[in-house]
Amino acid sequence: MKQGEVNVWDPFVRIFHWLLVLSFTVVWISGEELITLHAWAGYAVTGLVLLRLVWGFIGARHARFRDFVYRPGEVGAYLRDTLRLRARRYLGHNPAGGAMILLMLATLLMTSATGIAVYGIETGAGPLAMLSGSSGAGEVVLEELHEFLANFMLLLVLVHIAGVLVESLIHRESLVKAMFNGRKHA
Fold it and tell me: Could you give the dihedral angle defined by the CA atoms of residues 68, 72, 73 and 76, in that order, rounded to the nearest 10 degrees?
């Protein structure tokens, strides 16, 4: 570690992050054409998110929810300061980043749940295989909700990437590099 740097992101958070990026990419690309690959990558996303939820309570300091969950007013103030290019620097997640993480985790869980249900209905496979044959309006609603959530998640990913780039520029540090090596300037 270089002088003036501190460890921020533990190995679990970094490995989780990049495995989630990979799994979500596979899910997105495979779509309806490669349904078995899509389902297994979706299971990977689900498992990763569940592990991250546990890690949010027992993990390293900056991985814990109590370190980065802020009141809505603090998130709003941080976003206003960011627009003015004078946002305060945080060693861990800033208020907007913390809110984004919660929103992404919730969206991924809802997307996974609807996807598992649709997979069970359409293929008779997976944890909800017992739903097989229960087609009708419910299936259509689940499919549409699953697709909406997947598209919303892609939007969140793009906003997340933009936020990382803006934050990196404002504070003159590479947050992408920090997500690889775990270190940030003290």
Answer: 90
Here the tokens at position 169 are 């520029």
Average pLDDT of the residues of the chain? 93
Quickly state the pLDDT bin for 160 (edges 50, 70, 90).
very high
DSSP string, 67-110: HH---HHHHHHHHHHHHTT-PPP-SS--HHHHHHHHHHHHHHHH
Cα 173 to Cα 52, 75, 142, 150, 186, distances in angstroms? 25, 21, 42, 31, 11
What is the reported pTM? Answer: 0.92
Let me know: does 37 contact 30? Beta carbons within 8 Å.
yes
For the chain, give the number of residues. 186
Using CB atoms within 10 Å of the CB of residue 42, give its burial: 0 to 12 exposed, 13 to 18 middle, 19+ buried. Answer: buried
Distance CA 63, CA 57 (A): 8
